[in-house]
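S1.2 Input.
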Amino acid sequence: MDRKWQVTGATMATQMAQAGLLIYGFSALALPLQREFGASMRDVALATTCLSLASSFGAPLAGRLIDRWSIRKLMLLGAAMLALGFGLVSQAQQLWQVWLAYALILPLANLLLGQLTSAALITRWFTARRGSAMGLSALGTSLGGFVFPVLLTAVSTVLGWRMAVALIALATAIIVAGIVYFVVDDGPRSAENAAPEAGPQVSAFTILARPAFWIITLAVGIKIATYFGLINNLAAYAGTVGVSELRAATLVSTLSLASMAGKLGFGYVADRAPLKWLFFGALVLTVLSFGVLLVASGYPSLFVACLMLGLATGGMLPMWSLIVAEQLGEAGFGRAMGLTNLFMVPLTASAAPLAGWAFDTTGSYQGVILSSMAVLTLAALLVVALKPQRAAA
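S1.3 Output.
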């Protein structure tokens, strides 16, 4: 197999571990943590808030390190932090110690095994078929969500949650480290994506001065925020149109499966169509999915809406990295990705609570859906202003 596809497979494995344990796997730990410490679910969920905020604020620094240091070594560090962080979680005697692990140790694993390092490697290794490679790499996040919650729950039933999380995290870290050590290297660099010693680095000020940076950040931030606002309130909304909790749970599975198809499909098409219009199309498809939600009267219409939304959202993950590389250049790719993560925090962090507050206040999600459609339309219009050609770094 061509070496660059081996590297792509390795990034799929790292993202599977990162998303599976850190994002999706928390659903299998939430109830055991609540029972262990006698805490409210709100307090337990603060662990994910710590992870999200620390990762977002650490992303610009991680991006700078990715541009300057060996990605292979950074990934190995991320694997070590994965084992260490969950090892500390397994030994926690107070809930605040769990928060501490999720705030100080596990964000390193989240950043160094996730999208930032994977996308940077794909950008270095690929020119032709970059979109397909990015979509295949991003498929790891969906696979992680499919495997790890079930694995954690099953092993916890037999060994208890503490032993389960420690053993699974350690085994996963060892496997990931082995894959990274033997498969990953920092890859060929184009003249634009030159090694640090070859020329001056692209500064944060230069990136922030580009209109394309703010267009991408707002568009992706709005897309992710509206998705979070929906997914965290999907069961409640389904209940308002007469769908049971059990059937509502299958809608989440629909989103997940459609997301996998979207990552592969959008990645494939990205090699053959202008990224600007593909990005625009993903946002328009999202608007249409919310339109179906608005008039939903039962399970079939919700199913169609979730299918459309999953396709669009899955396609957004590879599209985000591809559009950053095209519009902002490859030399400062890591730093640009890190900065987009940071500046979209106000959008992504507030979406789910605002959607819940709106429902509590009005007793309806209609206003939330209409507002989501409005801001998504704005995001699509902003994307039209992007120049389709690659911008100079």
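S1.4 Remarks. The chain has 18 helices and no strands.
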